[in-house]
Structures are given as structure tokens and as C-alpha cells.
Batch of 2 targets.
Target 1
Amino acid sequence: MSGKLFGVGVGPGDPELVTRKAWRLIEGARVVAYPMPDTGESFARSIVAGAIRADATEIPMIVPMRTGRFPAQDIYEDAAARIAVHLDAGENVVVLCEGDPFFYGSFMYVFARLSARHPCEIVPGVSSVMAVASALQRPIAGRNDVLTVIPATLDEAEIERRIEGADAVAIMKLGRHMGKVRTVIERMRLADRTGYAAHVSLEGEQLCPLREAPDHPPYFSMLLLYKGSDPWLR
Amino acid sequence: MSGKLFGVGVGPGDPELVTRKAWRLIEGARVVAYPMPDTGESFARSIVAGAIRADATEIPMIVPMRTGRFPAQDIYEDAAARIAVHLDAGENVVVLCEGDPFFYGSFMYVFARLSARHPCEIVPGVSSVMAVASALQRPIAGRNDVLTVIPATLDEAEIERRIEGADAVAIMKLGRHMGKVRTVIERMRLADRTGYAAHVSLEGEQLCPLREAPDHPPYFSMLLLYKGSDPWLR
């Protein structure tokens, strides 16, 4: 009988923003997998390091973080195969995912390769979009507002179209696309309505208006733009 | 010196999906406010009832839940005034909010009336959108996907336009708008790509394809539609 595959969201960075359920599952996990860049430590693992058992079997899934490009799919094939060995042996496997597992995260790639043959459970996490709004102390959207979330990888025309068509916009994975995105927002005269955040909820957290944001932000950074009618003021 | 106003997201319903930080703050709170319908109990309070101190001062903020219509603003004026009495006396006040405080939630209305004169801290929560995707075991969006979140209160033409323009769509607060939304989705031949959820993460949770969804869903229900290119399969 197969073990169960748990996809667990660990939130934006602060260990206290992990859900009680996620923390409990990780504390009990005998096998823990997590995305790992080719250099440096695993961000997901670092968030919940305090919960991982000392005797847990760890499966780092090496995912080269080339800012702006997406990882090759064979990385996920390898990871899924390694995880499947444990599932087939009847062991549960907890897979960590930054933020939420099914919201622009890495877990969905592992899930897609394993869910047909193994029982799964997904534990939602606090998304960086919510964490950024909380840190900036700016509501994301309310009442009749339309919110659009876009990756910064889209081209200028697409970005402009999306901003035009929404009341609130979250632009994620800024990485090396800041120049392009800033150009669009400034052209649309919306810089004053746009906030920037990097490493949200962590000690090195950076929060500021777009005008003060760096030209080369880190991968885990985003912009939050609001151009609706501020229903919460009325 | 003013007390601090905490806006705390309590997630979609399951007490285990509350963050560790939110639980800790609620356990220590001497004054707790929460939205309350005019009949029945407070959903937000019920989620964290196990954490509220027996001797805490409670401030129910009566918000009539007329499905599809929004509460009158003077309700929030009253609530803010009552909370301000405690803040001005130097006491911290924790305000509970279902889901996340700044994502189509009720807290932003209280925040808007108090943040100018009182220090605030917002604790993000697990949004129902993430909870629904996890429960349906369907990724929300990945890679270059564009996600749009809309309230079901928009008119048919707007709903159709939003669905047309996105890869993934979350349609919230279905309430009495199901007929209209279903009509649009069926006309666009997207019913097979749409999942329904109500009371997600609770014992009475309902999950099914749109075709099987009820004609009169509860307030806390949503549809999740995906029409992108399933990047996680490749």
C-alpha cells in the first residue's frame, strides 16, 4: 500500500506564518523533500528547519534558479522518481513548497507526476501576495474589485493590458524584469499606486514605493498595484 | 500611548489552517473583535474559539449578511469607535478576519478608520482561493499563467470578459449569483474546467465539478476555473 504524498505550503518566510497543520505534519515526517537551488540553501527548508526531525530522510530537489527562466522538466522527473521510491515502500513523504503549493509554486510539477498512482493531500499556505499586502499595510482588493496576478515574464504589451483591465495587480517573480515592468507602470502614471516588497516577513524585508525599488530585485520580490476605487474608505 | 491594532487572518475554517503567529496573538489577546452576522454565530470567532481567553473582552461587529449586497458603512464606523475606546486606553485589540485581512475581507474597513491614529500590524492568513485549490487538488496557476479573481457580483458581460482574458479565474462570493455565473461559463463551454467548493476545510465541505454544484450556494463558496496550458504537466 502506497504512502501518502503531502504537498505542504510553508508560507512567505517567517516560521510563524506557517500553519499549525503544516508544522505538525513536518514535525512528524520521516521523509521530507524540498526545492533546492544549485548554490546556497533551500529557502523552503530554512523556514521550517526548526520542525524537521533530526532523523528524517531528506530529498533535496535541485532546481537551478535562473532568474526569469523556468527549470527544465527532467528535474521534476528525477525528484518524482526519488519520492516514488519512498511512497512505494509505504512511507509518507512531505514535500515543502514556499508560499502555497498550488499558487505559482514548485509542488504542482511533482504532484502532476505522482498523483495518478499515489494518494495526495495538499496543505495550503500563506501566499506571498497576502504577506506583501500585510507588510505594506495596503489592502489588495475589496468589494467589486478585480484582482489580476501576473508573472513579470510577460511582455510589455501583455503587462500593460493586464494592468489596464484590473483594479488591483500583483506582479510576481520580478527578478531581471524590473526595468520592463517599471517602464510600463511609469508610462501608465501608476508608480504612485505601486508598492514593492522583497524577502517579505524575513529580517531582511524591504518595503518601499516603486520609485525607491532597486533595479535588480531578487527572485522573491513583487509589486502590488492598486488603481480601484478604495471601497474600504467609504 | 495607544494600544496596537492587530488585523489577524484566521484562514478558511479549519483551526489547523490558522498560522502559528495568529494563534499566539489570539491566545494573548485581552480584547478581541470579530465580524458577526445578525443571526447565528461568528464564523471567524468559531475558527479560533479554542484560542480566545475566557476573560477576554469581546467586541462582536454586527454585519448583516445580505447575500450579494454589501454592509452599510456606518456599521464599520460603530465598530471602529468601539475598538478605539480600547486602543486609546492603551490596550491592544486583535481583530479577527476570515481568510486574509486584506483580501476581500472585512478588516480593511476597520483598518481604514483607525490606521491614521493608531499603530497597526496585519497578520496574513490562508486565503480561501488557496484552500479551495488544495481541496480540489487542482493547481491554481503556474509559470506564465495569468490569474484573475472576481466577485460574482459583476454583471454577465464583465464576468465573460474576465474569464476570456485570463488563464485561471477564481469567482468568489457566489451567493445568489450562481445562475448568472453558470450561464456565462456554460456559454463559454468551460464547465468541464470549473470546480466548485463550499465550506472548504470544514466538516461540511462540498467539492464537485460545476455541473453538480447547487443552484443556491452559500455565501462562503467559490468557483475555480482553469483554461491555461497546464504547464505542470510538461
Target 2
Amino acid sequence: MGADDSTATVRELGEFALIARINAGRAQAPGVLLGPGDDAAVLAAPDGRLAVTTDMLVQNRHFRLDWSAPEEIGRKAIAQNAADVVAMGAVPTAFVVALGCPGETPVAVIDGLTAGMWAEGARACGASIAGGDLVRSPELVIAVTAFGDLAGRAPVLRSGARAGDVVAVAGRSGWSAAGLDILLAETPAARRVGRGARAAGGDAPEAGLGTAPRIDALRTAALAAHRVPRPPYAAVLDALRAGARPTAMADTSDGLLADLAHIAEASGVAVDLDSAALADPALAELATALERDAAQWILTGGEDHAFVATWQAETELPPGWRAIGRVTAGSGVTVDGAGHAGPRGWESFSGAESPPVGDPR
Amino acid sequence: MGADDSTATVRELGEFALIARINAGRAQAPGVLLGPGDDAAVLAAPDGRLAVTTDMLVQNRHFRLDWSAPEEIGRKAIAQNAADVVAMGAVPTAFVVALGCPGETPVAVIDGLTAGMWAEGARACGASIAGGDLVRSPELVIAVTAFGDLAGRAPVLRSGARAGDVVAVAGRSGWSAAGLDILLAETPAARRVGRGARAAGGDAPEAGLGTAPRIDALRTAALAAHRVPRPPYAAVLDALRAGARPTAMADTSDGLLADLAHIAEASGVAVDLDSAALADPALAELATALERDAAQWILTGGEDHAFVATWQAETELPPGWRAIGRVTAGSGVTVDGAGHAGPRGWESFSGAESPPVGDPR
């Protein structure tokens, strides 16, 4: 197939040629014993178990083609699944992807999506895309299933937190929500000029940020964080390989408070966060410029795909982790000893029927 | 949660309550070491490998709620994935399901879908639904990933057929396509009166079948075959357990000719089918009554999810298998030595943008 095919539509190229194009020249990871082309793939499960998770991303619900490049969407789809695998204490080894798209989708969009998937799979410990399905649907739908090797260790559950443990995070919180807020503020302009709005975003009247280079840089960082989360896989996996072990762990997909609430409920404990430890001066600077609340981003913003874990108090926190609170007896999650007012995080069916993408409120 | 919740919508019940409802009282299969409720499930892989396959079903493309009950759709979604696993020579052990649906979807629809999934998982060798994802989407989208245990055997690939092998099938061909044709003929009535058309289908003027009880019974059988394929899993798995081994195998999802073409291409051989061996008197009787071509249904109809395999000539075919042709040197698939005119089977992006469900033409 020629590079010229990228200007064709999916219908023009056809299912089987597109599948061949997607898989051409790909080298499978060692954990994939049999890749695409048969009724099923065969994955290695060296310790006799596999961690497995699946997530579905729906166009205009979880991503927008006028907000993100196809490659960014592909990376995000893989990253959020890889983060779930790593949050179990497992090493990502492979992914399978079911993809639905309209017949008029440009092949270039599929090229971008799959390039992003392969790139993030490689970043997540050298994992590859072992197979998938390609069907027609009214809008883009991406369902990723991710696999991880527990390497002989017990999975790290949400239910192991105990009173006295330290709560710590690896990775940033709130930056994805900040990026989403910026995109939402730009939406009228984005609708008017399509993808061009992205390059010209800093000039959008809604943003109101003028030309301050410092704010522009923060703004760019927030947009990047929303478009492609960068879960700090190594902070978890290096710690586990070095023998450190959290008592409970999750990735922050729904929001820090919401995900800690899942841990607190599963463990039968309470969590109290220290707002001073959560402070992020750069994010606060951006929030001030945008007239937003940085604490709200940090506590309730979803899709950061950082890792939050509880550690026995005597454990020295591994590199990349910082303490943000304590586990206590009781139930629920508090900040500086008080309940947090307002929404806590993402819920799939809350809000209007056609909300802005990624809006957890 | 009360049974009354079935009259609520998905939005009214909410994501987390619905997930709890879906998983309430479910007993996981032995191959599921950790089920729903954490960042990932953990599956057993007793021989150090897992066969893995994924398929996406999109509403009004792969199923219609006015043609099939939710339980039937759930069964079909699992069956088509379980058939892929079995076609590799693996025993289904678990499934994960990513489900997208509108907020106004009745909880009763989700109840039916999940009941069907669990029922077919149990039929497929006692496998269970180990986890999933639930998101909002404009129409129902179901992405199933299925897992199978190879039980120490090499996977049965599409590429192992050799000249001289016997081609044989386990299960029926063409009945799903016949059911689809009946549904398509009834579509105006179905659109007019919704689900009621199903019970009253025999009276629909389009059907033109009068009240002949024999034809009505065949018609009912075809509709059932289309709504819920019944892959003969045991015909494959019992044969493998007894030490028999096909040289190549696939399930018939795209159509007998199309799926055999995949085997022929992967193996570098030709296949010639014997039309007399493929004849199905009951299906021919139904085709005559409907003024259709039974051979076209049998050769090109998709979604039967029977199994087609090649066996060394000296092998005694195991119970449930019947010979339908021969592998020869060359390439392509012929019937009685001649090429088959017309379309060969399903292709995801062929046809109009909004074709009738399941129509491979």
C-alpha cells in the first residue's frame, strides 16, 4: 500500500486493506506470542496470571477531533488503560483495540490513532498492540483492553489501606482539568474555525490571557496534559521492583477525591488530605490568570492518570512519590479535616445528554 | 437495589449503582482470580499463555433493538467472541465487556444484555464476565474481549491447511443469513409497530408465508439462528481433548466462502467445496417459500459462527463434523471446481453508509 492511501477514506480503502496497513511493519513485544491475523492473539502469561482492564472512549464524549490530534487520542486511549494495569502493580505487556469509525473517516485519522497507540504502548514498558477489530459506527469509538504481567507479585488492591498509612501520589493532579477548562473556554472559536483554532488558541478572545509568555507556557502545558496524560509508570514499577509495596493503589482517572474515596470505601478507612502538600504553585498561577480555582482542579479534576497509593508509615517513599495525607479510622475523604464542598469527580451519566467532552460536572 | 430499578433509566440509576447492579450476586468462574471492583481484573493463565480476541458490536449496524431482545444481543456478543477463542483451539475462560449507551437507556435493557452475556458465558464452558467499563454514547456499543486457555496445546492457526486435507464443518451454515433476510423483509412492519412486530411477524404481509406450519417452524428457526448463534463449542473442544487436531480452523463469521478464503490465503492452498455436501434440505425448503437462493445463504451468509476446519485425509472426522470439500494445490476457493459468482461475504465498510443490520451485501 502506498503512502497516498492516507488521503483516501476508510470506505475507499476497505476493511481488509486498512487492517493490513495498520499492522504493516509492526514488531510485536516479547509478551505477544501470536499477533494479528488469526481468530485470536496469543499472549504470554509468564507467572500464570494476567491483569486485564478495558476502557471505551467515545467521540465527543471522551475526545474531540477538533481538540486533539488523532495521535494524541491514540496515546490517551492506551495511557489510561496502561495506567489501570500499572495501578494493579502489573507491567503492561500488550493491548487489543476494537475501533469503530464512519466509512468517510480519512485513513490519515486511523494512521494517527494507531501511531499514537503504538507509541504509548512502547512508552508503557515496550508493550505492543496484539490485535483488534475494525467496524463501522456513526462516530469514532475506541475500546482498549490492556494486559499486564504481575511478575510473581500479588496485585495491589484498593482494599489494603490501613489507619496510620501515608497517602502519597506519583505524578501531577489538576493539569488535565485545567487543560479541559481552557478548551471549553475556547469552544466557540474552535467550532468556528475547526482545527485552526488550536494553533490560534492563544489569540482567542475568551482566553483573555494576552501575551504573557509565562502564562502561555503554563497554558500549553495544561493543554498537553489534557490531550495526552503521561502516567509516571516507572515511579510505580521501579518501586515494586525495588521491593517497596504500597498497601493500596489506584490511578487518578475520576479525580483525586473520587479515586481516594474508592480506596477508602474498599479499605474501610478514612483519608485526610493536606491541602498544603497538594499545592502546585504553577497551577495556581495559571488558575489565577484564568480566574479559576486550582484546588478544585487538583481535588476533582479527572484524567490525570497519576498514581495515588497508601504506604505503611515506616516506609520510605520511593523516588517520584510525595506524601499528601494520612489514612485514619472512619470513612470518607476530607481535606484538612473538613469535607470538600461540591462535586467530587467524574460520573459517566451525570450532566446534560451532550455535555462538553471530559466535563466531570 | 430493588427490582423496581429496572423501570429507571441508566442516568437515573447512575454509573456506580448500575455497575453494582450488574455485578450483584455473580459467581466468577475458576479462571477469574480477581473480578470487578479494582483497576483491573486478574485472570488465571494456567499454561502460561492466554488466547485473546476482541469484537465490537454497534447498534443498528450489528444489532437492532426492534429485531432482538437485549438478552439475545448479549448472548450474541459473547458467542461471537467465544467462537473466535474456540477456533484457536482454546477453552473460553473469561470475558471483559466495555459498554456504551445513552443515558435514557432503560436499566431493563442493561439487565437483559448482561443476563444474556452471563448465560452465554456459562454455556461457553463455564466462563464468566470478569470486568468491564460503562460509558455514555449516542447509541449502544458493546466491545467484548474474550480469553481462552490453550490447555498446553499449540493454537490451531489458519495457516496449517495442506493439499489433500479434508475440509469439514461443525454447525450449520446459512441459517443466520436466512433469518436476516426474513427480518429485512419485515422491516417496514417492524418500524411501524416496534417490538410488537416480532410476535406478530408471521402475519406481516411482506412475509407472504401464509400459515403453513412447516414453513413457520423453519422461519422461526432461522430467526433464532440470526438472533443468537449457537456455536458448537463442544464439537471442537471435545475433539481436541480426545487428541484429534485440525490442520487449520476458523469460525464462520464473515461467510463460509470468505472464511475459507482466509484459510486458503494464510495456508497458500486452494479449497474446493462440494455443493452436494453443503446442501441443507430444510433451508432449501425455506428458501423456496421465500423465493430466495439457499446456496447463496450457505456460501456467503455471515454470523453463523459454525466452525470450519481442515483435517488430514486419514483422520476420522470427530463427532459433530461433516466433510464438505477438499484442500488442493493452488489458491482461492471454488465450488464444484468453479468460481462462485457474486459477493463472498461481510466487509465492514462496504455498502451504503446506513445499511440494514448485518447485511453483508
